[in-house]
Each structure stands twice: as C-alpha cells, then as structure tokens.
Amino acid sequence: MSEKPDVEIPQKRQVLRDTNPKTILKKAAKVLKCNTNDFLQSSRICDSNKPGDYTMTSAHLMFIADAMLGRLAKWLRLIGCDVVYESSISDNGLIAKALKEHRIILTMDRKLMERASARNSLCIESPYYKEQLKQVITHYNIDYKASIFTRCLVCNKLLDPIDKEKIKDRIPPYVYSTQNEFDICSQCHRVYWSGTHRIKMLETLGEILK
Q: Under DSSP, is residue 183 helix (H, G, I), strand (E, B) or coil?
C-alpha cells in the first residue's frame, strides 16, 4: 500500500483574487496599520531563500506554517522552533501575521509565494512530513538538538520546569515514581516528561536526517 501524504486539510481557506503586488501591499499595510514603505522594510528583514553558512539554533528562527503543514509545525516545535500554526487562517492573515511578527512563511502554495508581501518564505516541496522536516532543518542548517523538547507541541509556548509534587494528581503513578523532572506549559497546562515516547522521537529524527 502506498504511503498517504501527511498534508493537513484546511478547515477554511480564503483565496485572494487580486494578485497585483501594489494592491496586496496596500491591503496588508492597512491590516498592520502602517504605511507601505514600512511594510516593505519589514518583509525584507530576512531572505529565507538564502540560508546562512553557519549553524543556527531554533532560537534564531521564527516560522509561520500554512494550513496544510500542521504535522510539520508540530515536529518543528518538538526541536524547539517557534512555529505559529492555525488550521483555518486565510492567506491574507498568514502574510499579515508573518510580517508583523517577522516570521518566515512555510508553505506549499506557490501562488502565495509569488506575492511581493510573502517574499520571506520557503516553499515546502514534499507532501510527506519527514521530508518536509528534513528540508527545513537542512535549508536553515538548524542544530536540532540544541533546544529539543523545550516547547509545547500544542501551544508553541516555551516550557517551564515544575516540581513533581505539584502535579502528582495529574500524572500516572508509575510516571510519578520513575521520573523526577517535569515541564509544564503555562498556557494549556499540559505536562511533559522524559520517557520511551521521546526515545522514539529521537530515533525518528535520526532516521530523517541520516
């Protein structure tokens, strides 16, 4: 049986009919409440199509993934990357947020990349998440081990260490008795700890990047 593509199906997708660059810039600048020149300057902060010659940690990079890249977003968060992902975000909203927060757009939509306001983007070539992850890590020369397991996979927030006594009633008894270090997300309150699941994730990363 052939492998099915790991592409998310967006709940809603708004398509911008007007592809005139000047019109797009004016509309996006209006969303951000700034003039067009400021908007252009923001979009030129980083040229994502020219990766650096040095190794980067995940702390150097901030991404926003389009609606079809939910699984990629999760795995990038796993290695510590700051990745915004909203399954129903429109193209206009994606670009506006990317420019406002200085994020690199990750997308499979080539038409979106053609817009002047979306020049700071990387075209994801494969429909499979493992190949997508390898492409991003390789393109930006990311040291994926530097900040691994430091970010919430659901909320994208950095995790905080927490004393296990404070979460005793929220974790399985076996985990409480065998683990001493725990982290928690300050937003969704999800609790994380080391275990066999992390070993499997590391093995998967090793297979992807070999």
A: strand
Place of tokens 């992850």: 133
Burial 162-183 (b: 16+ CB within 10 A, else e): bebeebeeeeeeebbeeeeebb
CA 108-159-168 angle, to 5 degrees, is 130
DSSP string of 112-126, one letter each residue = HHTSGGG-SEEE---
CA dihedral 50, 103, 78, 187 (to 10 degrees): 170
Which pTM value belongs to this model? 0.75
Contact 84, 68 (CB under 8 A): no
Tokens of 92: 């206009």
The owner of tokens 């930006």 is 140
Task: Print pLDDT tens along the chain (210 aa).
Answer: 455 566 554 444 444 444 444 454 455 555 545 554 544 444 433 445 555 444 555 667 899 999 999 999 999 999 999 999 999 999 999 999 999 999 999 999 999 999 999 989 999 999 999 999 999 999 999 999 999 999 999 999 999 999 999 999 999 999 999 999 999 999 999 999 998 999 999 999 999 998
Cβ 184 vs Cβ 162: under 8 Å:
yes
- Compute CA distances 138 → 36, 132, 143, whole Å: 33, 10, 9
